[in-house]
């Protein structure tokens, strides 16, 4: 049997994976559960892992997969039924785990891969379409989508690593706290968490080795919002 705090943390991780495709950071978990330190989160995660509810992916900082939910868990209205949110496999053969029977599995949606995106040292702006990747509709939201290959390590604490393929929904606006593709001065494309600071826009890394960059609103254009990611093993 899980404690109330363990259930709260498991539900929070699961909901963030369903909404954003990436697990929350330890700071976000601490704030969500109203704990004073991250040591309490470490203990809760260890307990959930020992009981077989989550799995921490090896050699991946803070990358967490939800294996199962308690039997008594009932999905909240408007939310999808539980399915682990980590996508595994080669880019050309994406699958979710556990796999549903073939007759119940929806056909994949072909998403264009538009090149590489910086999550660290700046690279050139988004390149032209190179190929497509098939993604289950369960990992997409409404609207038009594209994918980008991540280069760099500035978003590792958000569960985004060098070589991951991020799936982006095209949109020109975003809420503070969203992870977005931002185009700076129409030259540099980067994947960062967007924060609004008065009239300025802050592009925040998820790695303490990188500084937050602040720009005037006329220098940054949102190109899309992160909805999920694909990882090769």
* Binned strand content: 25-35%
**What form results from the Cα inertia axes?**
globular
Main sheet: strands, sense, barrel = 10 strands, mixed
Number of helices: 3
Separation of the first and last Cα atoms:
33 Å
Rg calc = 18 Å
Structural class: alpha+beta
The helix content is 10-25%
Uncertain runs are 72-105
What number is the mean pLDDT? 77
Could you spell the SSE succession in H and E letters?
Answer: HHHEEEEEEEEEEEEEE
Topology summary:
Layout: H1 4-20, H2 26-32, H3 38-50, E1 54-56, E2 64-66, E3 87-88, E4 95-96, E5 109-118, E6 123-124, E7 131-135, E8 145-151, E9 165-169, E10 179-184, E11 188-197, E12 200-204, E13 213-215, E14 220-230
Parallel strand pairs: 5-8
Antiparallel strand pairs: 1-2, 3-4, 5-7, 6-11, 8-9, 9-14, 10-11, 10-14, 11-12, 12-13
Describe the structure.
- 16% of the residues lie in helices and 32% in strands.
- It is built from three helices and 14 strands.
- It has helices spanning 4-20, 26-32, 38-50; strands at residues 54-56, 64-66, 87-88, 95-96, 109-118, 123-124, 131-135, 145-151, 165-169, 179-184, 188-197, 200-204, 213-215, 220-230.
- The strands form three sheets. Strands 5, 6, 7, 8, 9, 10, 11, 12, 13 and 14 form a ten-stranded mixed beta sheet that branches.
- With 233 residues, it is α+β, with helices and mostly antiparallel strands.
- Helix 1 (4-20) packs across helix 3 and helix 2 crosses helix 3 (38-50).
- A hairpin with a 2-residue loop joins strand 11 (188-197) and strand 12 (200-204).
């Amino acid at each position: 049997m899980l404690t109330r705090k363990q259930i709260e943390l498991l539900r929070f991780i699961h909901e963030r994976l369903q909404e954003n495709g990436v697990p929350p950071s330890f700071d976000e978990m601490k704030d969500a559960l109203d704990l004073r330190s991250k040591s309490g989160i470490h203990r809760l995660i260890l307990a959930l892992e020992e009981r077989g509810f989550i799995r921490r992916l090896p050699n991946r900082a803070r990358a967490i997969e939800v294996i199962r939910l308690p039997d008594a868990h009932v999905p909240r209205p408007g939310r999808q039924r539980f399915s682990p949110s980590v996508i595994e496999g080669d880019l050309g053969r994406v699958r979710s785990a556990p796999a549903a029977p073939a007759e119940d599995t929806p056909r994949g949606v072909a998403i264009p891969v538009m090149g590489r995106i910086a999550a660290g040292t700046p690279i050139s702006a988004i390149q032209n379409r190179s190929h497509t990747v098939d993604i289950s509709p369960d990992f997409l939201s409404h609207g038009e989508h594209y994918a980008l290959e991540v280069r760099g390590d500035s978003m590792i604490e958000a569960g985004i690593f060098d070589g991951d393929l991020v799936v982006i929904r095209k949109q020109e606006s975003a809420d503070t706290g969203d992870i977005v593709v931002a185009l700076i001065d129409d030259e540099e494309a980067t994947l960062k968490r967007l924060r609004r600071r008065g009239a300025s826009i802050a592009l925040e890394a998820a790695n303490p080795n990188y500084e937050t960059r602040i720009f005037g609103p006329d220098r940054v254009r949102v190109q899309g919002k992160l909805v999920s990611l694909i990882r090769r093993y």
